[in-house]
């Protein structure tokens, strides 16, 4: 061991001092890889924590939550629950809630960028019975009208006014009390306003109704039995009127809601790390080459192969530890920056979430460190083995190295085989979890196989590229490209890294472009009204903001309005997962041809006689088809007549007529309202007039809403783009490192060329041609490979995850630019490396 | 002629209306709650139910239970209804408070719990019969069997389920149906009692279930002002003698420590006839609560008509903590000894107003604050 330490001190650390920039870069690469992964993980967890906070902000974690199958729960049912539970010591805490949005006069808010709060009404008297398990301080100024209790984090004092948008109305509330933190009770999030139940019911105009009941089973010796019994009793009593979910089910549900989103991010960050792995390998390989003479000397002095290998691995371990440590810092900082963005995306796509601080847990820190260390060790394994196995005579000889290892990197057939395996895997269906979530596991494995295969097979392109040298008779070109005649493992590696990174980027670009075109088509077809009206607080798919009957009547009575269509929506839980029921004006949708059909209904008036249509996500999630009968919560039954394309939400929706909707849910409120104006009416002017008369409403003209829809859509992909840029950057840096290693190996050749009169400029140009060849091979393979990856993402991953059918669109210009950028930057980096190598003295080590 | 006649009729009506209003005003407290009136004709089961025109009402069950192997328990299950009139809207709302307690005599372990809920789906009292509920605690009369069922728990540690059967008829205390608590006319209640109920059922403590039998006492009292001006609280005892007679006694305590003249002792004979008697109430020992700091004279001697009854607590700590109301009181099981120290019966002793502001609470200030 002492020999290993001595080697480390005398060789490794000395080299670290001499080439500190390179070491720093290596550490930064490791830090970047593990940091990006960590940042994504932390930001996601923080964003998801918002879901939990909203349910557990009132008491300790409830043992069960009861929610209505088709909306609210009647207080009459609550008495039934109590009767059925008899003398069991179980506390039932009713909760009513609405999403609200803080309102500021004259500040319009773009969709998805507003803050969503929750106004939660619960029985403050009942809460006294769970003293010690509920927030303290509910005894504030109870005499204040519309009094709410807020978190201390909101920095408000008793009596302060708070204006919020609830449904379409602007409501003035007053701070009646401030809740401070209490040990053992979840902290009240700053986005939650608490109100006493009767006052909240009155304000929300839903007297004798509640949204959910938190069930707290009293702790004691018999708790496990009592808890089980309570769940069973409440379940048996439900009779399709409500659902009983345990705490673990709710956590799972919150996870399920964003499962696909999280999984995509994780896989993307891991793929970025995969490309990063190439770079680390190339860098450590370069380290071995630069120190080969030293290694030869050590071996001549009797240091064993095992000791040399161990020393390299320990050095890699050190690199991994330092890089991982930096990664922790980077990841944490990144998470703080990303949390708001991720939270916003989660909010837009999945519903109310609140921005939480992205805390670092020990487990995650360990995982991130492990990723950096394992990547570093795996990447160092082969170079360390090379260093220890190469005979001293080869090490000391300053001629081009003969590689004995890395044989499988030369096996192009393996690449084609992996790509073939990917083609087979892509035919497999999604893995269905019990929660109706589909995990395109086979498709992800196919993507990984495809990327690896692409990397291995990419070297094939270097042959044809070499032919260019024969066409143009220039020394530098022919010399540069001659190295590609028998590409070394390093060449193959550089090409592989580039091809994988470009393939990922190209694949994503194709998917985004396809999405964009499909969305435009869908928007064109489905958004035909002149004006769209919703509550200003409606910031997400699961927002409860609606428009009341009185406002609807006002809109209908406007002289400029020719036609009014309402969209009614209610969140339901079907087979344990959240989805939606929509109510529409059937004749209106038919008149205006509002739907893009995947399967057109066989019955023209599909909304009649218990008919319904579903969107693709719904069909995919619940494995339903046109012609099927569907049993919905509350004992309702519908016949599915058609399937429509809908890119609005991934939770899925079943659409029925508005008459049936009103009958089922006993609600006159509308979720969205579309207004068709009379000819020659200025839509902008009408929009302005409505907004002035109803400050709680958001009014969009057709063009504005289209712009907003596309903006939100693009915002969703912003994280993806960032990761792709990192991938390409890492791959190009890898190319530079690979060329540096190659030129270091060829020091003797370079020296000979200089002696023969070749200038530094010519050497740089030679290197640039070599690099350009590698970059072109990688980029070409990457773009072609990316085409199939795009297909996989569109027709498999996306279809299996979200259930959306997209048209295939190739962004030719974007792909051309990508290729051009990769080849140009690759050439430039190679030229710089060549210039550096030209200055290098024959006996120089670093 | 016709117009004169109309005018006279109107005047007549006004006079009658004014008289009626005056009468009605006299029968209510300033905030509109009813004052108990003499001559009230009780109808059952209706009068076992609630009387929402009165501010305060309670169904108060206490008793002694015996299990196998000499196991002995004291228990209390009480349901309160407290009304409050909203200052601005004038709307009356009701809060339901409930207390349950169990004393394991052998170990001296006293377990108790308090519940408070708004009137509604989780707490209510029937207006037509005895059917009271507060969360998972209930007290209900079966019209067919005339049995009263009571079910209560104390946290997750105690489950008490009893069937009660009256072995003596219901009695109505006070003069002509009104039990006076002070000089003021409004300081009075309607006070109905089952002085001896045979109890059968089970007591589960932890995982151990005991089959029990015993005797219980149930008060049903409603009023709009239990305490008069200058009064601080009361000491109350329900004594069940082995010879089949009972005594109900309450001592209304004035703020200066003296006994109010409205204090009463009533003998209940074997046949259920009532007889008021003079009495002397003498504390023999006190116990200071380590939790509330209140000093309770929980060991007393009551002397009446030549008889002496010593009420000796079966455990010192039988204080109901008042975790929600902030109003602790002592309500405990006692043995009853005669002047020779012989055991002649069992009793429950209540000592209220030794901690917290009982008067303010009964006036509904607390309740109103919480509801608003």
Descriptive keywords:
heterodimer; A: 846 residues; alpha+beta; 4 domains; 10-stranded mixed β-sheet; 6-stranded mixed beta barrel; 16% strand; B: 372 residues; mainly beta; AttH-like fold; 13-stranded antiparallel β-sheet; 10-stranded antiparallel β-sheet; disordered N terminus; disordered C terminus
Could you give a short description of this structure?
The complex is a heterodimer of chains A (846) and B (372). Chain A is an alpha+beta fold and 846 residues long.
Q: Would you mind describing this structure in some detail?
A:
The complex is a heterodimer of chains A (846) and B (372). Chain A has 846 residues and is an alpha+beta fold. Chain A folds into four domains: 1-57 and 256-397, no CATH class; 70-240, no CATH class; 434-527 and 712-846, no CATH class; 538-695, no CATH class. Chain A is 56% helix and 16% strand. Chain A contains 28 helices and 23 strands. Chain A is elongated and about 95 Å long. In chain A, 52% of the residues are buried. The model of chain A is unreliable at 50-57 and 346-356 (pLDDT under 50). With 372 residues, chain B is mainly beta. Chain B has a single domain (43-371), classed as Beta Barrel (AttH-like fold), CATH 2.40.370.10. Helices cover 10% and strands 52% of the residues of chain B. Chain B is built from three helices and 23 strands. Chain B has helices at residues 2-26, 358-362, 365-371; strands at residues 56-67, 72-85, 92-104, 109-118, 123-125, 131-134, 137-141, 148-154, 158-166, 171-173, 179-180, 188-205, 208-223, 231-241, 246-254, 264-268, 274-277, 280-288, 295-304, 307-313, 319-320, 329-337, 343-352. In chain B, the strands form two sheets. In chain B, strands 1, 2, 3, 4, 5, 6, 7, 8, 9, 10, 11, 12 and 13 form a 13-stranded antiparallel β-sheet that branches. In chain B, strands 14, 15, 16, 17, 18, 19, 20, 21, 22 and 23 form a ten-stranded antiparallel β-sheet that branches. In chain B, strand 1 and strand 2 form a beta hairpin. Chain B is globular, with a radius of gyration of 22 Å. Chain B starts with a helix and ends with a helix. The interface between A and B is medium-sized, with 31 and 29 residues.
């Amino acid at each position: 061991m002492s020999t290993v330490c001595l080697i480390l001190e005398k060789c490794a650390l000395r080299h670290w001092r001499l080439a500190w920039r390179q070491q720093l870069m290596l550490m930064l690469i490791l830090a970047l890889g593990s940091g990006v992964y960590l940042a994504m993980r932390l930001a996601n967890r923080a964003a998801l924590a918002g879901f939990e906070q909203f349910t557990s902000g009132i008491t300790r974690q409830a043992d069960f939550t009861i929610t209505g199958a088709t909306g609210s729960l009647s207080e009459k049912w609550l008495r039934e629950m109590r009767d059925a539970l008899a003398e069991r010591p179980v506390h039932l805490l009713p909760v009513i809630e609405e999403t609200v949005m803080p309102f500021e006069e004259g500040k319009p808010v773009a969709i998805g960028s507003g803050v969503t709060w929750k106004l939660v009404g619960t029985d403050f008297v009942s809460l006294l019975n769970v003293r010690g398990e509920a927030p303290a301080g509910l005894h504030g100024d109870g005499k204040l009208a519309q009094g709410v209790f807020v978190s201390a984090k909101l920095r408000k004092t008793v009596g302060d006014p708070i204006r919020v948008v609830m449904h379409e109305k602007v409501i003035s509330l007053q701070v009646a009390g401030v809740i401070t933190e209490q040990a053992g009770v979840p902290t009240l999030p700053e986005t939650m306003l608490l109100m006493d139940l009767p006052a909240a019911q009155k304000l929300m105009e839903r007297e004798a109704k509640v949204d959910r009941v938190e069930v707290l089973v009293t702790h004691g010796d018999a708790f496990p039995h009592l808890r089980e019994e309570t769940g069973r009793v409440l379940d048996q009593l439900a009779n399709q009127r409500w659902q009983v979910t345990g705490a673990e089910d709710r956590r799972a549900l919150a996870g399920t809601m964003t499962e696909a989103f999280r999984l995509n991010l994780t896989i993307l960050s891991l793929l970025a790390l995969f490309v990063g792995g190439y770079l680390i390998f190339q860098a450590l390989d370069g380290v071995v080459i630069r120190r080969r003479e030293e290694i030869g000397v050590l071996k001549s002095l009797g240091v064993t192969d095992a000791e040399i290998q161990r020393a390299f691995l320990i050095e890699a371990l050190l690199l991994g530890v330092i890089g991982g440590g930096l990664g922790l810092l980077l990841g944490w900082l990144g998470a703080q920056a990303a949390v708001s963005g991720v939270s916003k995306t989660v909010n837009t796509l999945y519903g109310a979430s609140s921005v939480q601080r992205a805390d670092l847990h020990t487990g995650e820190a360990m995982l991130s460190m492990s990723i950096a260390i394992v990547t570093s060790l795996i990447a160092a394994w082969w170079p360390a083995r090379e260093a220890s196995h190469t005979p001293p005579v080869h090490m000391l000889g300053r001629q081009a190295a003969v590689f004995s290892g890395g044989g499988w990197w030369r096996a192009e057939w393996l690449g084609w085989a992996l790509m073939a395996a990917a083609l087979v895997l892509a035919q497999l269906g999604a893995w269905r979890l019990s929660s109706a979530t589909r995990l395109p596991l086979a498709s992800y494995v196919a993507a990984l196989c495809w990327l690896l295969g692409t990397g291995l097979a990419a070297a094939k392109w270097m042959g044809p590229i070499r032919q260019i040298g024969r066409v143009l008779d220039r020394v530098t070109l022919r010399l540069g490209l001659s190295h590609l005649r028998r590409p070394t493992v390093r060449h193959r590696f550089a090409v592989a890294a580039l091809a994988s990174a470009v393939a990922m980027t190209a694949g994503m670009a194709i998917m985004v472009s396809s999405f964009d075109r499909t969305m435009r088509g869908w928007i064109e077809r489905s958004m035909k009204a002149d004006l769209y009206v919703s509550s200003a607080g409606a910031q997400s798919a699961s927002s409860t903001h609606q428009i009341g009957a009185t406002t609807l009547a006002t809109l209908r009575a406007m002289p400029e309005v020719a036609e009014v269509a309402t969209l009614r929506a209610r969140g339901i839980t079907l087979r344990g997962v959240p989805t939606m029921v929509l109510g529409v004006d059937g004749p209106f949708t038919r008149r205006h041809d509002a739907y893009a059909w995947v399967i057109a209904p066989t019955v023209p008036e599909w909304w009649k006689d218990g008919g319904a249509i579903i969107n693709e996500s719904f069909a995919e999630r619940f494995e339903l088809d046109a012609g099927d009968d569907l049993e919905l919560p509350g004992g309702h039954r519908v016949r599915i007549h058609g399937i429509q394309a809908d890119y609005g939400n991934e939770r899925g929706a079943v659409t029925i007529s508005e008459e049936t909707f009103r009958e089922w849910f006993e609600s006159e409120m509308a979720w969205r309202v579309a207004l068709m104006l009379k000819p020659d009416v200025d839509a902008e002017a009408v929009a302005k007039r409505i907004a002035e008369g109803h400050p709680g409403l958001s009014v969009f003209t057709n063009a504005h809403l289209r712009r907003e829809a596309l903006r939100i859509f693009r915002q969703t992909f912003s994280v993806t783009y960032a990761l792709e840029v990192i991938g390409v950057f890492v791959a190009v840096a890898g190319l530079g490192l690979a060329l540096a290693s190659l030129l270091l190996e060829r020091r003797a050749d370079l020296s000979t060329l200089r002696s023969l009169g070749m200038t530094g400029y010519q050497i740089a140009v030679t290197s640039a041609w070599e690099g350009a060849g590698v970059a072109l091979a990688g980029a070409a393979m990457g773009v072609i490979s990316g085409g199939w990856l795009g297909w996989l993402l569109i027709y498999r991953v996306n279809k299996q995850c979200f259930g959306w059918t997209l048209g295939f669109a190739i962004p030719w210009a974007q792909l051309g630019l990508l290729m051009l950028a990769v080849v140009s930057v690759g050439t430039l980096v190679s030229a710089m490396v060549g210039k550096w190598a030209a200055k290098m003295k024959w006996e120089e080590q670093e | 002629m016709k117009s004169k006649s109309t005018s006279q009729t109107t005047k007549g009506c006004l006079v009658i209306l004014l008289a009626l209003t005056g009468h009605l005003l006299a029968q209510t407290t300033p905030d509109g709650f009813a004052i108990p009136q003499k001559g009230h004709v009780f109808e059952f089961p209706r009068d076992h139910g609630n009387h929402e025109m009165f501010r305060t009402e309670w169904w108060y069950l206490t008793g002694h239970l015996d299990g196998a192997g000499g196991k002995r328990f004291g228990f209390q299950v009480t349901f309160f209804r407290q009304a409050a009139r909203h200052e601005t809207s004038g709307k009356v709302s009701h809060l339901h408070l409930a207390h349950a307690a169990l004393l394991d005599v052998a170990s001296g372990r006293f377990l108790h719990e308090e519940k408070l809920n708004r009137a509604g789906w989780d707490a209510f009292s029937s207006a037509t019969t005895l059917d009271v509920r507060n969360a998972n605690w209930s007290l209900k009369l079966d019209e067919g069997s005339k049995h009263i069922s009571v079910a209560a728990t104390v946290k997750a540690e105690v489950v008490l389920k009893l069937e009660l059967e009256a072995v003596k008829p219901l009695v109505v205390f006070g003069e002509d149906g009104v039990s006076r608590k002070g000089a003021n006319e409004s300081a009075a209640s309607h006070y109905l009692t089952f002085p001896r109920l045979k109890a059968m059922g089970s007591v589960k403590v932890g995982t151990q279930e005991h089959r029990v039998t015993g005797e219980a006492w149930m008060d049903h009292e409603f009023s709009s002002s239990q305490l008069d001006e200058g009064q601080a609280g009361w000491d109350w005892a329900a004594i069940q003698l082995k010879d089949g007679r009972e005594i109900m006694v309450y001592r209304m305590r004035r703020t200066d420590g003296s006994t109010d003249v409205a204090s009463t002792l009533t003998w209940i004979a074997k046949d259920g006839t009532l007889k008021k008697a003079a009495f002397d109430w003498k504390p023999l020992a006190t116990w200071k609560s380590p939790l509330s700091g209140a000093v309770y004279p929980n060991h007393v001697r009551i002397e009446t008509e030549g008889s002496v009854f010593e009420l000796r607590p079966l455990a010192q700590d039988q204080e109901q903590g008042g975790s929600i109301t902030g109003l602790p009181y002592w309500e405990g099981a006692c043995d009853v000894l005669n002047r020779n120290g012989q055991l002649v019966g069992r009793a429950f002793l209540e000592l209220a107003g030794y901690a917290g502001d009982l008067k303010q609470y009964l006036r509904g200030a607390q309740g109103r604050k919480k509801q608003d």
